[in-house]
Amino acid sequence: MKRYVYINDDESSHDLYCDNRISNRKYTVLNFIPKNLWEQFSRFMNQYFLLIACLQLWSLITPVNPASTWGPLIFIFAVSATKEAWDDYHRYLSDKKANEKEVWVVKNGIKKLIQAQDIHVGNIVWLRENDEVPCDLVLIGSSDPQGLCYIETAAMDGETDLKTRVIPSACMGIDVELLHKIKGVIECPTPDKDIRRFDANMRLFPPFIDNDICPLTIKNTVLQSCYLRNTEWACGVAVYTGNETKLGMSRGIPEPKLTAMDAMIDKLTGAIFVFQIVVVMVLGIAGNVWKDTEAKKQWYVLYPDKGPWYELLIIPLRFELLCSIMIPISIKVSLDLVKGLYAKFIDWDDQMVDLETSTPSNATNTAISEDLGQVEYILTDKTGTLTENKMIFRRCCISGIFYGNENGDALKDVELLHAVSSGSPDVVQFLTIMAICNTVIPTQSKTGDILYKAQSQDEDALVQAAARLHMVFFNKSGNILEVKFNNLILQYEVLETLEFTSDRKRMSLVLKDCQNGKILLLSKGADEAILPYARTGQQTRNFVEAVEQYAHLGLRTLCLAWRELREDEYREWSLMFKEANSTLVDREWRVAEVCQRIEHNLEVLGVTAIEDRLQDGVPETIETLRKAGINFWMLTGDKQNTAIQIALSCNFISPEPKGQLLSIDGKTEDEVRRSLERVLLTMRITTSEPKDVAFVIDGWALDFALNHYRKAFTELAILSRTAICCRVTPSQKAQLVQILKSCDYRTLAIGDGGNDVRMIQQADIGVGISGREGLQAARAADYSIGKFRFLKRLILVHGRYSYNRTAFLSQYSFYKSLLICFIQIFFSFISGVSGTSLFNSVSLMAYNVFYTSVPVLVSVLDKDLSEETVIQHPQILFYCQAGRLLNPSTFAGWFGRSLFHAIVVFLISIHAYAYDKSEMEEVSMVALSGCIWLQAFVVAMETNSFTILQHLAIWGNLAGFYAINWIFSALPASGMYTIMFRLCRQPSYWISIFLMTAAGMTPILAIKYFRFTYRPSKINTLQQAERLGGPIVSLGTIEPQPRPLIEKDVSTLSITQPKIRNPVYEPLLSDSPNATRRSAGTPFDFFQSQSRSSLPNYSRNCKDN
Amino acid sequence: MSTDPSTSSAASAEEQSNKRKSKKPKYSRFTQQELPAWQPILTPRWVIAIFTLIAIIFIPVGLAAFSASQRVVEVEFEYDSTCIPDSYKDNATAYIKDDATNKTCTQKLSIKSKMQAPIFVYYQLDNFYQNHRRYVKSRSDEQLRTPDKENDVSSCSPEDYVIINNKSQPIVPCGLIAWSLFNDTYKIQNNDKDLVINKTNIAWASDRNTKFGSDVYPKNFQISGLIGGAKLDPNLPLSEQEDLIVWMRTAALPKFRKLYGRIETDLEADDEIVVLIENNYNTYEFGGKKSLVLSTATWIGGRNNFLGIAYVVIGSISLLLALGFLLLYLLKPRPLGDPSYLSWNKNPGGLR
């Protein structure tokens, strides 16, 4: 499909294409309520609660006032709807602002100021310096005589450097006044979201120029949301408007990520649901039996002899409603609230602010903080992530002579300086290529300094180095490059630019030396993209050696080469190039092919070596996180040797005696297979030895491994704690993440550049470094941090605390709901299994919403260990990784606790308030008070550190309970009129309450103390050490753990069965961190069956990939 | 001309830093999660002290509660089977349902020890489910409170309306609870003298004043259809029908006592009292029990040993735990926070 845009033709396109009204809104005023409700009800939990609430409208079965469910339900719905509405309103406001911005547009041949939303496709839009571009434009004019203009694309791809855009050749030289009257047609593809491609053609109508087709590329466009900089004015034709712009098309709502914890909570909810159904069925049957045998005799109940047809259903349904509180309606809201706060804590953290750029960390995704604490694999990019991406030119090799080898800095190498001053032709040519074979834009600052705007840090480093070697690239005006060499100004005219792509791995310029009119081809690129194309007869062994030597030092290498082109050769090629550039289909591929035809027979000049320094704290961070049991994979586009060197220098792998690096290579499928098998065999043998075994694989071999030997590679992936993958493409990075995820590991991908975006989006957690390669990765990521070393704090402090806090909060939520539900169940046994509710509606509603939700919310401030202790003992993270704090067995503990507390409260209430005191409302309030007191003490006992807020919440809540109930007791209309006043005056009330508290808490305190002292978990030991003020001794270096047998035995573990999971029965008593890494349970398998059923499908996906 | 290779990047970084300064979070102890916190840990000293403290408080309180409960003098007479004439023993239901039979029943009770006024007279029912769902909801608080809400009987079915002259009239008070009002009556004689049973102020003041209207009179109550329990005097407002008010405070347990009245004279030890029971209430159909209870009260209420015993038990358990932990602490001291428990490498090969 193509779109034809008629330039400056007001009428033809109005109906065809949308206007420039931007809309990011999800809702309109009319559809808000239905759409929002529909979205909320697509969740199982909400459906469940709605069903319960509807059942409660049937007064025959409802135990309490329907308001006790409708109230919270409406409240919860209102909260999330309000949040949505608020967000949407703000989107509306910002849209409105953008839509009503005034821009100059040519209408009927006259420039007019109109609102941005009234721009139509085909309109000519005029922009002034620093204007924001209102829609996607094809440039037709610019204040620059060469037709250039500069734009900043930060809002789109996050890159802060200026980019040049140029008007199409057909529009070159058209007079400003004539631009108003220009007519023509642009043939362009239908809107898409690729911001790097725009394959279109333009044809101007007479009288402007002959009807020659002029190809357009992305270079001829300025896209919506960019800013015009350093250019007085520019004008262009609107081709895509409104939501059809490139930016508008690439907008999308990202898939919500689900944490392992959320999955576990869902599973536990499922288990409780099953339990509830069982209870309901048992009680329902018992109730019906009792009714038929006993209740018929109880004349005062007046059971009719013959009930309606649904008679048998009534009692089970009553119990269903009575037990519906087992699944706490408040848990979702509480979790959303605390997750928001976890994210805020990350945003606020002062210690994660990059001081160099004052960039704070930012949690874009507020829902997955707990996952940070459960990370098992970190997949990291190298350049810009581990390293600073601050390139410094260090060494070079020109025509076989090594410079900079002695002092490590070629710029200070006397020999090189001498060669430069003596004007050795090779060296001069080498410097020329360094200075101009790039896309750098020099700009002169007010003080006369030359600033370079470069898209690539390598280019920046080379130009800077050339400048220091007296080859100063100081001006670029249009196609003319001006270079000053020893006070001699040299001019070059750029004829063609053969751009860098990651497939070609090189870039070239075709230019004309203005001094002598010769046409030159200058190339620079990766060694394997240059050396094979050296002119026949040239010895490249020198250069290969140089590349190897530099790579060994961890330097990035580039080869520089050139050749002279004959006039006719250039002319012939230039036609092909132009044609290739104007193709609409597969342009990139065609262009690459044409480029190939000229980039051969090169005279290789030399090799440059650029150093990319490691970021501060990288080795320490890797070591700490490694100790925490996290495995590291490095995925880089760099060369194998460079990658290995960097890996060595940042503790990624250990040098020989301690570590072992196995290499998987091979050029053919067969070689790769053999290599893979060999490595796998070695890996299996060495897992029992305390040795750091890592494997290294390059992109070529990885391709075979992923496509043909996926199973073997997966096994290798599970066995290996460390891996280096070099020369991998962005999609391979994503595939590697996929492999680890398919083995059920929690993966974190960290990167900084556009090539990491796919990996970041694919991983369970994506972390972006907001660094020099722009913000693209940071935008796509769930978390963005300024430096790699903040990862340590992000995982160990924020991730761990979040996990611990959510583990407590979620289990506690179930505990308190179960507690009150069990009491209701027990009460039904003494009320003729008829489904009477012991508690009144007000209490039931307030119990979940007020009494029990406040104290637990402040548990987000709880810290079991101080941050310093955790950083010193990163191994403690294991408890989170293995899910030791939230799993079926800990949940069973809470379940047992609520059962025990329910028994205590129930027995004491009915015995202390027996005989003449056995008044319904009083017994109910005694039992409720008991629950409130117990839950306050439970929260207090599970809190590790009390800040003032915790004290306020826990004890204030207890006071609040009495305040609320006194208020209700003062209302004559309420059922509990005067009850609470009466109770508080009775000594037996207080005696009963203290008895419940003591009886409920004594055993728990005893067990906790016993475990804490005599069976301490590592956390407990550290707590003791930390709080008793003793020295916290770190026990030296930690040997890497051989992986447990269960995971080694992968042969039985096919891909279809991701990872054997072991239920942990004594979660806090086991000593070995790796003994049981997993803890998802078979006992509560309710919701897993669903995932099982999808397995065949999923395994097929594995193979297909 | 620039000679410093990092000029361009440094300049842009500075530019950015100025732009972003405002984004830097403000420092506060809350945002940094550094609020001062009290971090208690369970040291042996603390835990043993807590358990000892619980023991020290709970055992005396328990003993006090127990002795208070023991001081209560209670006379209980279960009359459901005693008050059935021998001829009706096998067919108690027929006896109780038959209006013609003589329901009066006389029994001598001896007072073991001195009972000080006020002596509370209770009736106790067992296996009577006032907390049954059909029962407990079968009332209309609105109707009880105001005469205007006479027709507010939706929750009272099936005791909501009666048909009089083909017109359905609301029952006041409606519902199963009122309908099944207890109707046994007691007379007590001491030394052949009638003891006055004071039946005023037996219901909660709040119920009399607020929940039961002083201008609401019984209407159409127990006049036709199935007759449940007691009838009410249609000339007395509900707020003065104290038996009804007491009855309508439903009990949470199937075994419960309800206040019948107070005797405001002391009874001496070895007094022989005679109770005259009008045995009207049908508990025979469902095998319930009825008792008459005379009881004094102390600060803890009527006789109930449960709290005292439970306190002593909890106190003793705490004491045992305290002693146990103390012994454990002395015999097997275990240093807290010993780093040797921190070896991450201990790999018990057998495990898993």
Can you give a write-up of this model?
The complex is a heterodimer of chains A (1105) and B (352). Chain A is an alpha+beta fold and 1105 residues long. Helix content of chain A is 45%, strand content 17%. The longest helix of chain A is centred in the C-terminal third of the chain and has 41 residues. The C terminus of chain A is likely disordered. With 352 residues, chain B is an alpha+beta fold. Chain B is built from nine helices and eleven strands. In chain B, the strands form three sheets. A five-stranded antiparallel beta sheet of chain B has the order 1-11-3-9-8. A four-stranded antiparallel beta sheet of chain B has the order 2-10-6-7, with no helix packed on it. In chain B, a hairpin with a 2-residue loop joins strand 6 and strand 7. In chain B, helix 2 packs antiparallel against helix 9. Chain B is extended, with a radius of gyration of 35 Å. Classes of the chains: A alpha+beta (1105), B alpha+beta (352). Chains A and B meet through helix 8, strand 16, strand 19, helix 12 and helix 25 of A and helix 1, helix 2, strand 3, helix 4 and helix 7 of B. Chain A: Keywords: Aminotransferase, ATP-binding, Magnesium, Membrane, Metal-binding, Nucleotide-binding, Transferase, Translocase, Transmembrane, Transmembrane helix. Chain A: Its EC number is 7.6.2.1. Chain A: It catalyses: ATP + H2O + phospholipidSide 1 = ADP + phosphate + phospholipidSide 2. Chain A: Pfam families: Cation_ATPase, E1-E2_ATPase, PhoLip_ATPase_C, PhoLip_ATPase_N. Chain A: InterPro entries: ATPase_P-typ_cyto_dom_N, ATPase_P-typ_P_site, ATPase_P-typ_TM_dom_sf, ATPase_P-typ_transduc_dom_A_sf, ATPase_P-type_domA, HAD-like_sf, HAD_sf, P-type_ATPase_IV. Chain B: Keywords: Membrane, Transmembrane, Transmembrane helix.
